[in-house]
Design a protein that fits this description.
single chain, 802 residues, alpha/beta, 5-stranded mixed barrel, 32 strands, binds FE3-S4 cluster
Amino acid sequence: MITVAKHAGFCFGVRRATDAVERKLTSADAGKIYTLGKLIHNDGYNAHLRERGVGEISAADIDDIERRVEGGERITVVVRAHGEIKEVLESLKMLDEKYESFELLDCTCPYVKKVRQIAAENSGEGKFFILLGAKEHPEVRGIMSCLNGDGASFASCDELEAWANGKNDENGAPDLGNLQISIAAQTTQNLNEWKKTLKFAKKVYTNPFIFDTICNVTEERQTEAAHLAADSDAVVVIGSRSSSNTQKLYGICKAICPDTYLIENASDLSEIDLSRSENISVTAGASTPLSVIQEVEHTMNEQITENFEEMLDASMKTLNPGDVVVGVITSISQNEIHLDLGAKTTGVIVHEKLTDDPSAKLDELFKVGDEIKAKVIKVSDIEGIAMLDKTRVDSDGNWNAIVEAHEAGEILEGKIVDAVKGGVIANVKSVRIFIPASLTGLPRGASDEDIHALVGTTQKFKVIEIKEERKRALGSIRAVLREERRAKEDAFWAQVEVGQIYEGAVKSLTNYGAFVDLGEGVDGMVHMSELSWRRIRHPSEVVSVGDVIKVFVKGVDKEKKRISLGYKTEESDPWYIFTHKYSLDDVATVKIVSLMQFGAFAEVVPGADGLIHISQITDHKIASPAEVLHVGDEVQAKIVGIDNENRKISLSMRALIEPKDEEPEAAAAPAEEAAPAVFSTDNPEVYADFGIEEAEKAAEAVEEKAEDVKETVEEKVEDIKEAAAEKVEEAKEAVADTVEEVKEAAAEKVEEAKAAAEDIKEAVVEKVKKTRKTAAKKAEEVKEAAADKIEEIKDAVTGSDE
Ligand code: F3S
């Protein structure tokens, strides 16, 4: 329902001014008519005046007007209802008196004139005039120009209060102590603001003269608007946005009814939505012509009729399968939800048409009052029920999101909802994405049980292929796992440094070393020479596959992504053990490990052998160490030499033999001094012994050198073997990756082929159905034709009988 305010539109003062101009326009002696400023705050009406030849001037044009009048031109100048500044008005009056061809049409509203008079009479000696009104408003400027003494104007009570307290005026408030204060208001002032101001003025000024100069037209308009706003769903205020009284009217209504709109004319109605408002009030500012109010009312009535027709159409609308509808949830049960479709039909969506997750709880996914968009799949007009499917709408809408994720290479997360032949189905926002078994991330040859175990789990995957026309997507969990693994590997390589210690399981053994799993998909190798301090022939002598060992990084090649590891430590070095356990001249129990012509090698600590020179085995001459010692014998020996640089130990059994009585001198001599006898030409036997000993030492050195060379050669061979084996490993990995890629591509092709086969099957089935139908129809036609023929023959036979 639309209610138009009784006090809407042109007030008495504005109507008086417009009527005066209209009359003048029809008078023959008007000459050229000008308004001093815009006649009213209504662009439409002002344009209408312009069209009829009425011009607009400002105070600055008055001299020019005078010149033209002097020249004999007939001119009429109209002063609008707001009034004008006293000096300007007096200039115009002077022209009016002076020139017969000039006419002043002073349309200042009588109410405004009254305020101007009050201002003049209540200012001057011993008086101070206060006006509640905005300084820049033409009416206020006109009134204040009439003062005969001091006065001030304020837009609001707060502004007056601040001035009175000396807070906001650069000149400060004058001392009003003995002055008679008079207070009045702009004619269109807001009533409430006026009341508030009076309250303040009475409090701070002694017996102020109060002039209630608010125009009763304004008062009635505002009071009526406030009452209407309180009883309406919406209020439309018509008027210019630059009009003071319209703005005040809008403010009053808006404070009471939030759905208040300010429009200038009927065309602005298209900008506002009144469709949900039943009771609408219309009011208008003092400068709004009646024609504009009537046009607005007419347009609103038309809109309401259209809305009503639309609502009627909606209520009559029948639903059809395939329609997409929006409804509001009215109830939720375990298996279905009901929707208000606003068309005398209840929408029903069963669980599987709401979500692809059978375990989802509907009351956790939805709540009463939610809006849901769904597709109609079946309608029962008799029961007033429409069966709907939300998943189809979701799927359509979400398909684009899946395509975008594919294009952006985004990782998606979805629940695995089904295991099908050859893989699993993931659900993302109701879009089903097929993940082939080979791309599930399960190891090759995973059983059906393993694949079924994925159902119900949430997985991250990437969409690796899209079939736009069939809305099919192929996903890969493996692609995500591969990315994650690479990211971890990259992190590992970014931080790994020589000297870092890791604990890892031995993954495999080769002839040249052991590969250790360092985690994050990175393996390192411990070369055989780094496994033990003693010479070993195979890494299995030290570690086995599966052993968890502590290793440290010996070298890193981040570019080639290779790490060499160390396993043996300084503390496990036999020389370290030996030097920490024994010192020179200590006696040790040693084990004979080999016999040479020049002496016997004996193990002092595991991995550290010493030599007992043949001359240091007994206190008498022997032809071979084997005469006294056997491999495996454990004997006591004195440590008589430690060569740290070359890691060599000299032992002597002879040094521990007590000297015999008959050989006291020899017995008294220290063992190592006794061994190399002093060369003397007088002692050919010693000379001979010395020569033999030197030769034996030389042989020993040669033998040791040969041993070193052999070791070096062996190490070199091992290095070469190791490098070759690494190359083989790399090649294997590259081949494995290629094989995987080929497999992935093959899997995708197989999926495509399956899909194509499925399409062909559907087409063939459709064709067969059609062919059957056509054949059945043909058979029916033949049957009917045959029956007709039989009838004809029968009729012919019967006819001939007759
Ligand atoms: Fe006059 Fe009142 Fe109108 S003062 S111009 S009648 S609003």
